[in-house]
Amino acid sequence: MSEQRSFDVADLPGVGPTALLVFAGLYAPIVTLVVYSFNAAPSVATWDGFTFDWYLKAWHNSTVMNAAANSLIIATLAALFSTALATLAALGTTRRPAFFGITAIYAAINQPLMVPEIVTAVALLIVIAAIKAATGYAGLGYLVIAHTAFCIPFAYLPIRARLEGMDLTLETAAADLYASPWQSFRFVTLPQLTPGILAGWMLAFVTSLDDVVITEFIKSPGQDTLPTYMLGQLRRAMTPDINALSAALLGLTLVLLSGFFLLSRRKS
Amino acid sequence: MAKHIISARNLVKAFGTGEFAVRALDTVSLDIRPGEFFTLLGPSGCGKTTLLRLFAGFEMPSAGTILLDGEDVTVLPPNRRPINTVFQSYALFPHLTVAENVGFALKMQGKPRAEIEATVARMLALVRLEAMAGRKITQLSGGQQQRVALARALAPHPKVLLLDEPLSALDLKLRKEMQVELKRLQNETGITFIFVTHDQEEALTMSDRIAVMSAGKLQQVGTPKEIYTHPINRFVAAFIGETNFIEAVGETGGARLKTGDLIPVEGVLHGPVTVAIRPEQLRLVPPETEGAIAATVRDLVYFGTGTHCHMALADGTALTARLQSPASGEIGLALGESVGVLPTPGAAQLLRE
């Protein structure tokens, strides 16, 4: 840290307290949630000792488990499909010379990040209602497709970043060494891309796991995911098993995001 | 086997279109013989790397044809040409071990595992890296990476090996070692090497023949000796080694300088010419010597094995002579001294332009 600096933001008055305040605002509610998920009292207002009961209660609740299963199935499949599509999109937008309209294509791929989710939800509701009426199919497929669509940009961004950071000479060298275009992809591009693909999958998985708005609009009756189940419970009375579920979701998300962080830091 | 391993016929490579088009290569025709160490030499931007990339198949020419061992390969993709490349950046696969890098081409060709292992072992022995087979590329030094790149490109026994300034990232000492190493590898494998460099000394040391390029065009093709002693134009004379250029008028018997002196040259070239003569081909003699050109010593620069004597002729033309260091180290010249300059007979070249 011998680096000479003429100006350091940390020297300004109030920077430290402001930062503390912001972090407190971000994390105090979450910490409270986790703490109260172990609260023996049925009310959120009072602390009455430590217990695992709410986790056990949620675990033995078949509706909760059903919603959890739905969440995991949808998130796993949506993450898988969106990562596959995002990989193709990333290859298509980086492995060729820049062309007129490339920015428009980036914007089109990242549409779910920009269009308000509620708009997409209403639009999907209309289309899916029509398909349901026509085909009679009312399974989880609709949710998987919808989640795949809005997960694509989350998978696309880390994969594209990885591809852009890759040395193109390696692919030229592979071709020089008799690799067909497919072999070159399989044995050179893909192994180097793997951390990006895994990171993309994890981001997509977390995004799908967390979704409420679109799921709430297009799910068929009895197709609750964990977030929509919790939202439904909220309409009645707030019970600490919701805290426990939230804390469990948070734990899963943290594990996956740590994985994402480690993978995206890993150098070729 | 065809008489020429690679023949380029009227190759043109243009980048861009219309009035902004740049010809990186302008109608280049070239024949390279089997087993030759052939060097493409020129300043950056002269088109030498573009020519190499056309040979490799990384780029397609705008016009012209490339024959490999008599067969037209102009539009064949790189993976279907028996030509391999050593890249300037080495382009080794960081996710593979040394042995996997060297065996990559054979694996792509679908060779049996036993054959791949045997060839990899032979190649690693050839570049003296047997002990490194299981290492990751990132665990190797620059010189070792260079040798892996060579082994990887030689493993499939290509008809031609292309080397794109492979020594430019190495320090001087390692570079000299690798020059010797490259010559040895070429002798042992008998493969045709096409070597790209901007370093004229490297080209003179290593090549059987050199093609000097400038502005997308071939200037001269010949052995190092031919190119050094008989440069075809001013560019080649200036790019290879050091040269004095003196404006003169050609007449029967030689070139008449503006000072009135005559430098005898074989072969007659009439009209305005440039006399090119190397500093080591000028001898200093007493001013009254028969045939000597009068000059004044302007500067003396000592460089160990010799001294550069910078002089001016009567009309102000600058001239440099390279003098061997005598045992005493004293050349016995003083600034401002009048001397006579005598060119070695046959050493002066007349250039048009």
H/I helix tally of chain A: 12
Largest sheet of chain A, if any? none
How many separate helices of chain B? 8
Categorize the overall geometry of chain B. elongated
Helix and strand pattern of chain A:
HHHHHHHHHHHH
CATH superfamily of chain A: MetI-like
What is the CATH class name of the largest domain in chain B? Alpha Beta
Strand proportion of chain A: under 5%
User: What's the CATH superfamily of the largest domain in chain B, by name?
Assistant: P-loop containing nucleotide triphosphate hydrolases
Pick out the low-confidence regions of chain B. Answer: none
Residues in helix, % of chain B: 10-25%
Q: What does the oligomeric state look like here?
A: heterodimer
Structural class category of chain B? alpha+beta
Q: Which residues of chain A sit in consecutive blocks of at least 5 with pLDDT less than 50?
A: none
How does the major sheet of chain B shape up?
6 strands, mixed
The helicity of chain A comes to over 70%
Organism (chain A): Rhodobacter maris
Membrane topology (chain A): Multi-pass membrane protein
Function (chain A): Required for the activity of the bacterial periplasmic transport system of putrescine and spermidine.
Subcellular location (chain A): Cell inner membrane; Cell membrane
Question: What would the keywords be for this entry?
Answer:
heterodimer, A: 268 residues, mainly alpha, MetI-like fold, 74% helix, B: 353 residues, alpha+beta, Rossmann fold, OB fold (Dihydrolipoamide Acetyltransferase, E2P), five-stranded antiparallel beta sheet, 20 strands, elongated, transmembrane (chain A), MetI-like (chain A), membrane (chain A), Spermidine/putrescine transport system permease protein PotC (chain A), transmembrane helix (chain A)
